[in-house]
Design a protein that fits this description.
GO terms for molecular function: ATP binding; protein serine/threonine kinase activity. By secondary structure, the chain is mainly alpha-helical. Strand 2 and strand 3 form a beta hairpin.
Length: 265
């Protein structure tokens, strides 16, 4: 891949810093790949090792999710992952703490790891530094709206969109909730990412939902809702959201095979 892994690009001296818009697009690319795995692959898969070194960047900085050595298929092929007891596999710093404690794997473990990658992406910091993981060391900034600008990678300077930063921080907090059931699906994450980059996308989805369900007067899901009340993101139905997912954001080491042939490991 033309620009190597996201980890190497973020943490190797001498590399040209990624722009804010490039980082947001990488986040969208990875979410697209996970949406495909969780909802459209047959059978659905948990990747189990989402981390920046498994995200590769081509010559145009399109992100590809690679390395499916730890992938685990859903139990019965349904899109709803029932908890599965497995040996703990993954990478320190990115691993879901609930999975480590219970040894029960669901797709929400991938969502947690995605939240860590998103935090690494906007901070430019290593996931484990001085024996502290990035989620812990960033908590004081993530918990305070007045301090969220302090976590932005200094290499970006002031070249970022504050409204998007609010949304990204809210997504990170939501994805890294201690309990998996409190985390969003990757569909919900992707929807909020698209709404942050294109406000018209949110209006389009609202209109489609109203037409399909007959609902009216739905409360707006504007960006400011992310920091209301207890600071948590609201639940969001994604059943009628238009999917932008694509297998093109997955990097396969061999010619494409039927997902049914991928073994459960």
């Amino acid at each position: 891949m033309g620009n190597g892994s996201l980890m190497d690009y973020l943490h190797t001296q001498g590399k040209k810093p990624l722009s804010w818009s490039a980082r947001i697009q990488i986040a969208i690319d990875v979410a697209n790949a996970l949406e495909y795995l969780h909802f459209y692959c047959n059978p659905p898969l948990c990747h189990r090792d989402i981390k920046s070194s498994n995200i590769l960047l081509d010559e145009k900085f399109v992100a590809k999710v690679a390395d499916f050595g730890l992938a685990h298929a859903s139990k019965d092929g349904s899109i709803c992952f029932e908890p599965v007891n497995t040996d703990i596999r993954g990478t320190p710093g990115y691993m879901d703490p609930e999975y480590v404690t219970t040894q029960e794997l669901t797709e929400k473990s991938d969502v947690y790891s995605y939240g860590v990658v998103l935090l690494e992406l906007i901070t430019g910091r290593r996931v484990i530094q001085d024996n502290k993981n990035l989620v812990e060391s960033s908590h004081v900034f993530l918990a305070s709206e007045s301090r969220i600008t302090e976590i932005v990678d200094p290499n970006i300077g002031d070249e970022y969109d504050f409204d998007q930063l609010q949304t990204i921080v809210a997504i990170i907090r939501w994805c890294t909730e201690r309990e998996g059931r409190a985390r969003p699906s990757i569909k919900q994450v992707l929807r909020f990412l698209y709404e942050s980059t294109d406000p018209l996308h949110g209006d389009f989805v609202e209109a489609v939902e109203d037409e399909e369900t007959g609902s009216r007067g739905r409360k707006s899901r504007g960006k400011n809702v992310f920091f209301s009340g207890d600071g948590k993101c609201p639940p969001s139905s994604s059943s009628t959201s238009r999917s932008y997912c694509s297998r093109t954001f997955l990097l396969e080491a061999s010619p494409p095979q039927s997902p049914n042939n991928i073994p459960s490991i």
